[in-house]
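To: structure desk
From: M.T.
Subject: fold request, one chain
Message: Could you run this one when you get a chance? Sequence is below, nothing fancy, just the single chain.
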Amino acid sequence: MFMLGYFLQALAGVVHVLLMAIMLVVIARAVLSWVSPDPYNPIVRVIIQLSEPLLYPIRRRLPILGGLDLSPMLLILAAVFLDNFLVPSLQRIALNMLS
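Reply: Done. Structure tokens follow.
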């Protein structure tokens, strides 16, 4: 049973890192939308390619309010919620299995 506890602990750590990476990419995309970056810059292309699959489903369902795209904020809020709910829940389950 201890192996499942360690697995859940490791899974919680991986989920936390993935959620932080999602937040960083979305924030970088939002900052890029404020300036006029070179679309052929490799860093800009990677940020757009990583963020667009996450933002497009939200944009499709969320109306644009006065030209303001709220999809990055909604995605960041969802990532923060999952980071504050899912990760501690997995850690607590893992600790209960280990003790």
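Reply (cont.): The chain has a mean pLDDT of 93. Let me know if you need anything else for the meeting.
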